[in-house]
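Morning F.,

Quick status update on the modeling queue. The single chain you submitted on Monday has been processed. Sequence for confirmation:
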Amino acid sequence: MYAAILCALYGIVSPGATERAFSAKYEKLDPPEAVAEPLRKLLAAEALVVRGEKDATVMRVWFRTAIPVKATADQVKNGLTYREIPEGTVVGVIEFPHQFTDFRRQHIPAGAYTLRFAVQPDIGDHTGTAPHPEFSLISPADKDKSADPMAKKDLIELSSEINDGKHPAVLLLFPNYGKDDGPMVVGKGDGVWVVNVRRPVAAGDAKATLGFGITVAGMWKP
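Structure tokens below.
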């Protein structure tokens, strides 16, 4: 009973859950061949592998070994947020073995992509389309070859190529204030599932960790 209460409070998938369940773990895997060498050098040796129904792989994520952030010593001490990541920064690389549907209901073909941080503007048709404004924009790995931060305008254009220039492809980030390194599968309701992890970040010479909540399933319900 106590375990069931905890699952209800925190959205953790319990073994007996009848809802769609996911599993996640780190596995030692090489990044996809499409990833350019300057980016490959940034990536950790293991991938976060997320599996769904019938143990089918949903995605593989190679995070950057240490994600650079801009933060003061006090910010590092008190806890960091996504907003300390400069927009356009490479967060990692993702591979979809099968077509993936992002939070905006856009279909992303199977393949390898880069992940760069961006914040959704609260204007126009963006208003109310996501519970949180922080995303990693998904871009074709074979067209994103620099390890340097990318200007937001250029990033939006590159990511939008996936959908014929209509809108950037997105990986929604939920806040993760937990101290557990994870990975931990969390249900957010309405069919939204997130994998929580903590990843190393670097603010100059200062080292810390930052919680990530990677959306692995679920879509905006207009």
